[in-house]
């Protein structure tokens, strides 16, 4: 895709197994298909917004619309970079990095999901590490935040391995019931102390103004 008017299409983040990039329409269709196939067991809900409580077709369509919406709504003050994650050439999930007033606060947040067929292989840790490298090394972030339900042990383990520390609890309404989230925070020192995944950034410079840099 021509990245002249939207240089984020030229941004790539690579690790030993993964490539993260803003998907073109073909890759976005592949990502939507991964969401349609399922990202968690039906008897649990790891998200505060239960977007997966839908048919496979609706999940795929929601993924397609959400990602295009992040591009359309982007401003230098309020942005969400929603990247398709490919492992050995196959799209396996999505990794988000977002912020409001990042140029002032230096703080951003992460979110992600991974297709069920690709879980249990360490991909979730590797793709989050890629997003952290972009934030701290590429954009000069001061802090990264995340959150997970108290029973989402996989997500909490990823955060712990990468150096996040608990930052309080929050009560949210999910499926009409009260659920408890763990808030998590990572500073630059914690990130540097827990770096184990080699990450490379490609094509970031032309996009810096879009991040408010």
Automatic annotation (TrEMBL):
Q: Which Pfam families match?
A: Acetyltransf_3
Stored PROSITE patterns: GNAT
Q: Does the keyword RNA-binding apply?
A: no
According to the UniProt entry, its GO molecular function terms are: protein N-terminal-serine acetyltransferase activity; protein-N-terminal-alanine acetyltransferase activity
The record places domain N-acetyltransferase at 18-189
User: Which Gene Ontology cellular component terms are annotated?
Assistant: cytoplasm
Ranges annotated as spanning the membrane:
none
Q: Which InterPro entries match?
A: Acyl_CoA_acyltransferase (IPR016181), GNAT_dom (IPR000182), Ribosomal_N-acetyltransferase (IPR051908)
Arranged from A to Z, the UniProt key words for this protein are: Transferase
SUPFAM superfamilies cross-referenced by the UniProt entry: Acyl-CoA N-acyltransferases (Nat)
Identification of the protein by name: GNAT family N-acetyltransferase
